[in-house]
Structures are given as C-alpha cells and as structure tokens.
Recover the amino acids of this structure.
C-alpha cells in the first residue's frame, strides 16, 4: 500500500463501553490492529467497567441515522458490523440503513453483557428476528442469544448444527454459532446451510474475556472489507480473537478485557 492509498473502511454500529473492553471501543481497537480504517455510529452510551453496567442511555433514532448517513454518504464503507442496538426502534432503523448499503454486514445480536446486564429490550427481539437477521451477511450469536432468538438450548457441541439451522431460518446468509460458553475447547460452527466449517481453539483459562464477541465480529468485518470470503474472514478472525483472549489482562476488580493489541505488542520491545 502506498502512502496515498486509503486502507479498507469498516463501520461499527454499536454501544459505547466506557471501560474500553467491549462495544465501539473494542471494535475500533480491533480495526486498528487489523489495519483498516474504523468508523463508528454510536447507538447508546453505557457507564460500564470490569464489574458490570452501571447505566445505559440510548441515542435518538435521528442521531443514529445522521451518524450513519454522514459516514456512508461521504467516506463509504466496505463492511458494516452491528452490536448493541438497545431498542426495537433502533434495530429497525439500523436494519433499514444496512439494507440500503452496498456492503457486507456482520450482525452480532448482542442481548446481555457478560455480567448479565440487558443491552437489548425484550420487546426488540422480534425486530432482530424479522428485520435485522434477514439483512445480515453473517450473524454471530452466542449461546444465550441463540436461546433467546430461537428457543434452541445448546448443551454440547453436538447441538450447534440444530442451533445454526434455527438461526438461518430467519434469513442471514451465514451464521456463526459461538460455542464459547460450553466447557472444553472453544468450538464455533459456521454454515450457510450448505457449506460447514467447525472452528476449534484451545480454551484459555483466563477470566479476562470482556469483549470477546465484539472483537470477533469486528475482525470478521475487517476480513470481509478486504474482500475475503466469509469462511476465510471467520477463520482469520477466530485466530485473532483466540490470541486476544490468551493475552486478556486484569483491570479493575472484575472481568478484564481481551487484549486487542496482542498482535501489535508481540514485536514491541
Ligand atoms: N476461554 C476461552 N478460550 C478460548 N476461546 C474462547 C473462550 N471464551 C470464548 N472464546 C471464543 O471467543 C469467541 C466469542 O465467543 P463468546 O465468548 O461465546 O461470545 P460473546 O462475547 O458474544 O458471549 C468465540 O470464538 C469463542 O469460541
Ligand atoms: C456496549 C457493549 N456492547 C457489547 C457488550 C457485550 O460484551 P460482553 O459480552 O463481552 O460483555 C457490552 N458489554 N457492552
């Protein structure tokens, strides 16, 4: 890349995490680490740290639309990633914006934080199913989100295929079911209903996993923005998040963040 050539552009549409481990902050750090130009549409502001979410404030739909238009109409995007969308109104507005954008969309249907704090109203679930999932190139639910959205409870890696079929029925092109909350190896299943890829990584016995899902979804968006196929982008993103979890560090008194900069720091003296 010459000095004048711009890097690929990736947009996150998500909530702010004041603690810097998840949400928009995790997304932008991931994008920097993976060499793309990161941009953000903030949907909600959370007061959050290693102990949980102490408060959350949604932005008006008008503010979300305006941020999105500012970015897409002038700068342009090669991939979009969504995270915390908070309400049915915001889910529907974002789904509509994405459907009018010519770029792949990675939808992380964030429901609840690691600490159990709600990041999406229960009344928004139906909009996620019927409006947001149908415009996703890849949806990346964790097991709690799969249960909330489809009623399928995954108890072992054998159930992942059934969960994937239930999510695909809502219309995303691909689904990545994240088995991170199961015991044993960290096994995820990627499928479009025809092709299937099992992604397996050793489980790191590290409690500092704040932001894993946001980091993985952003890394996938970075790969797609570079023109990689979905299986290629997901494979590279899984490697990146596994390294970030291995390097997760303690901050505050609770669950610390994954290290978004692990690959950059490797060569830092
Ligand atoms: N302790 C761990 N060691 C290695 N990989 C993990 C660990 N916990 C989660 N993962 C992986 O991190 C990614 C994010 O998954 P998960 O933590 O389930 O998402 P979420 O943050 O949405 O709950 C997945 O690829 C999952 O397999
Ligand atoms: C603003 C925001 N977005 C997403 C998450 C989910 O991250 P995690 O599942 O690691 O708590 C979060 N805690 N905060």
């Amino acid at each position: 890349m010459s000095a004048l050539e711009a890097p690929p552009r990736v947009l996150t549409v998500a909530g702010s995490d004041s603690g810097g481990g998840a949400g928009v902050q995790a997304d932008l750090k991931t994008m920097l680490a993976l060499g793309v130009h990161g941009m953000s549409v903030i949907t909600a502001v959370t007061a959050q740290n290693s102990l949980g979410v102490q408060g959350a404030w949604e932005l008006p739909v008008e503010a979300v639309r305006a941020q999105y238009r500012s970015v897409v109409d002038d700068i342009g995007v090669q991939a979009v990633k969504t995270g915390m969308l908070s309400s049915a109104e915001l889910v529907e507005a974002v789904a509509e914006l994405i459907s009018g954008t010519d770029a792949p969309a990675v939808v992380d249907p964030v429901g609840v934080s690691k600490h159990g704090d709600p990041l999406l109203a229960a009344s928004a679930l139906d909009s996620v199913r019927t409006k947001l999932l149908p415009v996703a190139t890849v949806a990346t639910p964790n097991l709690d989100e799969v249960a909330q959205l489809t009623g399928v409870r995954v108890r072992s890696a054998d159930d992942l295929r059934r969960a994937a079929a239930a999510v695909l029925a809502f219309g995303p092109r691909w689904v990545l079911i994240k088995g991170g909350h199961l015991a044993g190896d960290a096994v995820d299943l990627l499928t479009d209903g025809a092709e299937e890829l099992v992604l397996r990584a050793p489980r790191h016995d590290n409690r500092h996993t704040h932001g894993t899902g946001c980091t993985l979804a952003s890394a996938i968006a970075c790969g797609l923005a570079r023109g990689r196929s979905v299986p290629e982008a997901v494979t590279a993103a899984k490697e990146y998040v596994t390294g970030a979890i291995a390097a997760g560090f303690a901050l505050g008194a609770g669950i610390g963040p994954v290290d978004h900069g692990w690959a950059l720091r490797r060569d830092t003296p």
In short: The longest strand covers residues 37-49. The mean pLDDT is 96. The beta strands are 9-17, 37-49, 52-58, 79-82, 105-107, 138-139, 174-178, 186-191, 196-201. The pocket of MP5 (ligand 2) is lined by residues 14-15, 17, 22-23, 46, 48, 83-84, 110, 113-114, 119, 210-214 (CB under 6 Å).
